[in-house]
Amino acid sequence: MNKLPFELDTLQQLIDTHHLKLQYQILADIPFRHEHFPLYSVELGGGDKPCPTVLFVGGVHGVERIGSQVILALLNSLLQRLVWDKHLQQMLTGVRLAFVPVVNPVGLFMGTRGNGNQVDLMRNAPIESSEKVSFMVGGQRISSRLPWYRGVGGMELETVGLVAYVQQLLSRSTSLISLDAHSGFGLSDHIWFPYAHTRTAFENANYILHLKQLFEQSYPHHGHYRLAPQSQFYRTHGDIWDYLYRQHQVADPNAQVPFLPLTLEMGSWAWIKKNPRQIFNFAGFFNPQKTHRHHRILRRHTVLMQFMMEAAYAQSLEQLTPERLAELTECARLYWYREPQS
Ligand SMILES: [Zn+2]
């Protein structure tokens, strides 16, 4: 095989080096040409009883390598700290941290957005928008040679593997917050939550508003994120997180387990503005090229990710009373879903 990309190599090394400190699973074995690429998940902490879980995902789109790198940098840091950091050791008795750092190993290997079949994994889940989706970007079945291709053969192996894993995690959790790291949209860092396929209000927007308030009160100088339903930017078919949330509603009709799928869209256009030569380099469109900028991106989200872990450990979602949730539902409606004044 050609030399593995840095991210696949790093993930394999982290698993080999720290296998006594972590649990891993192979969620799928992706054949490509004459090779096989394992799709790994890694877990720290948790235990036998259901507990709060935070899931970090990267590399859904093979060109957006920085997303995988941010997740791998976090995993590496936690594995190093686990040796001496008593607070982290304590935290992992009450919370499970799960990682799928490279959802699309073949795409990463090939430097393509889609997988080995040119399918865009974030358009591949069996969920249709009944509203007008954005042309092309919303997902298309015209040709695998064009971007945002949804595929025609049902769910791809990578999608099946990720869906099954998230469902498995939900069955072992009292709450699940996930962060799926992407890059390439706009100038600032966005955090999107469902839905991507409809403008309908997301049922768990109340929990999301609670986390937003907690984060802004606790870290007032880290509020550079723009947090909103994805449908306010563009709508798509086939979003994995929309699909997973809908399936979760069927499995957990009484909404016992809050599930908050967040997508971090790192604003890579800002990197282009600062370094316009990047647009002549395809990878540069999605990934910071200068070393100092690269380091800055890798540390830029650590406060957010640490906050997610601490909030889960504190059971902040589990502790919300029905009365408080009802208030938050109304606040979330006014904040994100108010109809424009006519
Ligand atoms: Zn992406």
TrEMBL record:
Membrane-crossing residue ranges in chain numbering: none
InterPro entries in the cross-refs: CARBOXYPEPT_ZN_1 (IPR057246), Peptidase_M14 (IPR000834)
SUPFAM superfamilies from the UniProt entry: Zn-dependent exopeptidases
GO cellular component: extracellular space
Keyword set includes Zinc: yes
Keywords, comma-separated and alphabetical: Carboxypeptidase, Hydrolase, Metal-binding, Metalloprotease, Protease, Zinc
Known cofactor(s): Zn(2+)
Gene Ontology molecular function: any one: metallocarboxypeptidase activity
GO annotation, biological process: proteolysis
Pfam families in the record: Peptidase_M14
Superkingdom classification of source: Bacteria
Domain Peptidase M14: 4-342
Annotated family: Belongs to the peptidase M14 family.
Entry protein name: Zinc carboxypeptidase-related protein
